[in-house]
Design goal:
Blueprint: H1 8-11, H2 23-34, H3 46-57, H4 63-67, H5 70-85, H6 94-133, H7 138-142, H8 155-161
Helix pairs in contact: 2-5, 2-6
Length: about 180
């Protein structure tokens, strides 16, 4: 049988590298959507949102990738409904509007940090309960680790660090 000739272009097709939508990036997108201004030159569309994310994060996500995240999709639906209803009119004072958007972004970040703090407190309580169950004291937890001795060969450095010096044991001659 003859083998089919394969062109070099199709022989090694590599998939595009992917960048994960981490929780920080998802929250950033949701916060940006929540404070999106009512601007006829830059309306709230998925393309404009992707472009803004690409400009800041130097990576392009797809519309479908962003819309699969529930917090981004919910924020997009809520904000586009607000903009369509005309509730968000062009502000008389743009500097004040920037302050309001910054405040909204900071409040969203504060809420996120409070949730993360609560999560860490729950984890700490779990560790505390497990340590108590195993009779581990606070002094045991705060005890520093021993320095790892990987057999330093420089005798001067070993003496300077206070490590034990190797004892030279003469080898016995091999029996023949």
């Amino acid at each position: 049988m003859r083998r089919k000739a394969v062109s070099p272009e199709t022989s090694k097709v590599r998939p595009k590298k992917r960048r994960q939508l981490t929780s920080e990036i998802r929250h950033w997108f949701a916060a940006e959507i929540a404070v999106w201004p009512h601007d006829p030159q830059l309306p709230l569309t998925w393309e404009n949102l992707v472009a803004k994310g690409a400009a800041l994060h130097r990576w392009t996500w797809s519309r479908s990738g962003l819309s699969r995240c529930p917090e981004i999709a919910a924020a997009f639906g809520k904000r586009s409904g607000e903009l369509a209803a005309g509730r968000d009119r062009t502000p008389k004072n743009p500097a004040r509007a920037d302050e309001v958007r910054t405040r909204a972004r900071l409040l969203a970040q504060i809420a996120q940090l409070k949730a993360e703090n609560e999560k860490l407190l729950r984890q700490f309580r779990t560790w505390q309960k497990n340590a108590h169950a195993r009779n581990i004291t606070v002094d045991d937890l705060n005890e520093p680790w021993d320095e790892v001795d990987r057999g330093q060969t420089d005798l001067g450095l070993r003496a300077k660090k206070g490590l034990s010096l190797p004892q030279h044991v003469p080898s016995r001659p091999k029996k023949r």
